[in-house]
Amino acid sequence: MKRLIVFIYCTFLTFNLTLYAQTRIKIDSAKTGKLTLKESKMILNLIKSDTLKIPTNTALQREIYRLNPDLIYKYRLDSISSKVSLDYNEDVQNQINLYLAKKKVNIGKMVYLGKYYFPIFEKALLAYRVPLEFKYLPIVESSMNPFAVSRVGATGLWQFMYTTGKVYGLSIDNYVDERRDPVAASYAAAAYIRQAYDDLGDWLLALASYNCGKGNVTRAIARAGGGKKTFWDIQSYLPRETRSYVPAFIAANYMMNYYTRYDDIIVRDDVPVKPDSIYINSYVSLSKIAGAININTTDLKNLNPMYKKDLINGSVNAPKKLIIPKVTSRNYPELFAALNDTNESTINVINASLTSPKIIKEKATYHTVNNGENLGKIALQFKVEVQDLKVWNQLKSNVIVPGQKLIIKPESVKSAQLEKADYITYKVKAGDSLSGIVEKFENISIEGIKTINNLKSNVLSIGMILKIYTN
Q: Domain segments of the chain: what residues?
């Protein structure tokens, strides 16, 4: 009974405070047209406690925002319909301030690039039932640059590490790096985020996992006392970068939704290229195709960032996709000629000869670490992968020191004919074994696959790309 009396009293008091505030506002507004700072603070406290709801687009709302400018950011974030908790706090405000102070030019560029990339991201996110707000994550990861490479070797729009990319089915070989493929990488990222959400039960925790790994998130939850936790509950237990990573993502959502409210954010008004796709079943240079459809080779490479060389290594058994601008009928003859040119002088393709190959021995290549260098920079310089450097040098982490001697390319015995041979690629799936793969193709052996792929054992990992010579 006593609790009931207290509840009724509190309800009455809250009602009267609200009524008092509304009455005072009405009286003072009639006199001066403005609120006093004291009234504003009182109303703000009522708003924060969800006691008072202010109608939108009213003189009263504008007056409250005039006296409490930060409140508008919370209101705008709350107004975004989202399955993700786009919370407002000081950390988020700091990230918004950073965009407004230093990155307005970048925001205009992101909006423009989004006209091309966002539909690609949305399609992948929808396929895995991931909230569409995650389409803004590449703004934080890479400033939507498919060629971006971090200091530790993370690559592409979604910044996949070599091993993670392989695990999620991305092809990475001498010709192709699908971490830089907007379509393939988007589906891989959506799969990762969905799996993380299924494991953690919260979209912001899944986002934190994308940055620092699920292990760090689960350990942070344990350190915070275990049980059901939000990102903000465990923020202080996460790696330093991840603590600001989630606020930066929320800030990016804010900017993408409200950039039109800032007159000095300039967005190009031209429409990005309308893409089309064709499939290539032979070796063709990008420059030859660019010439055929009368565009700059650099522009064609930007549409196809997954190709590491000026070469598409398509074959009948494994055709490769090429993104081109929509072409008119007058370009068809030149394009057809380029795709069917059997005298491509810049490409030397020799059929495999598994019976009597010419054997050559290659010496190992070394590099001495200089001041300021890291594995990512060295990998980029020598056009190898960070993960390969770690394996070749038996490194357990990315830490290297000046004066350290690194193997850049290990000593190897290879077949000169096999190295240049035409081949197809095979992506290892769950349950695959070398013996099972051999049964899928003619005239190949387990030892043959191991030789041409430099495998030291029969152990395969899901997502591994194997070269299969079938000639």
A: 2-69, 99-261, 275-339, 364-410
